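PT: before anyone asks, these are the final sequences, not the draft ones from last week. 361 residues across everything. Please model them as a single complex and drop the result in this thread when it's through.
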Amino acid sequence: MLDGEEKSIIERAIRGDSSAFGLLYDRYHGQIYRFVYLKVSHREEAEDITHHVFLNAWQTMAGYKDKGFPFSSLLYQIARNKVIDHYRTKKSSIDIEDLNETEIPRNEIALEDTIHSQFQMETIKNALKQMKQDYQDIIIMRYIEELTPSEVAKIMNKPEATVRVLQHRAIKQLRALLNK
Amino acid sequence: MENDIFETLQELKRIKPNSEYAKHSRMLILASPQHMIDSPHVSTFFRVSAMISAGVIALVMILGGTTYINETYSPLALEGLNQKSLTAEANEINDSIEITLETIDYLETSNQTTLKKITEISKLADEPTAARTMMMAAPTAPEATSTNMESFLIKSDTTAESTATEPPTDTINTILDKVSE
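LR: through. Structure below.
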């Protein structure tokens, strides 16, 4: 989808055209789900959160203002907040460290079978879970979703330089965790 | 190892949502109503009117506060320096002086009148004594007969009329009137 094309789709969605928002959903649903799934490590929870992210975006679409960033920036921002809320409400019953032992759903395992090293994937996922929220976000957005530092900065509401520093620290920590 | 990390991270991109869930979620979201935001004209109108009313309230409060402070804490508010209170005080003093002067006038006039009256009364008090003396000096009747008495009375009447010391009836009446006053 070209930038100009996306703009016109967004304008239609702002005016309440649900089919236009459907196109945006189709484009961004996968990456938002992945982002959420890697942070919560639970399929049902990831699905639930992702659903609420898009619902929220659709309901507040009328107030959307284009600031020159891709529409995904808005979705990532909502997703980050939803994940934070999710952990905030869940913290009283489940310790965040327990998430390391979360069982990977069967369909995810089936999908990961196609990857050359399932073991390595599991190791990285477990390492990600042990990292700070900001580090997780940067690793996912920069190395999995391949967003630019300026996009990440916008999503995280931080200066670009700070994002670069955080990115460096995040990689360093991930490497240290994998070498344990 | 370094490359392995980035390659594996890239491979995580293959994680995808369940297609059934994705369809169902999409349908539910697009079926839900979009929250409409108020017309920009209406919101601008409310914003402008709110700003104006806030400005007016602030102005009233500032003016009211300034007036209150001026009246309460200003050095001009001191009793000795307040022009209004000074004028009122001067008027009060003027009034009291006027009252005193009027009283003095009244007392003086009444004193003079009283003195006059007393002098007149004392004059009048002397006049009947002289008349009485004259009456005592009149000739006595030899017999108490009716003819003698009549002649005596006529004689005494003429005597009385001729006597200058006897007070006239008109004068007595005037004095009595004055005293009654």
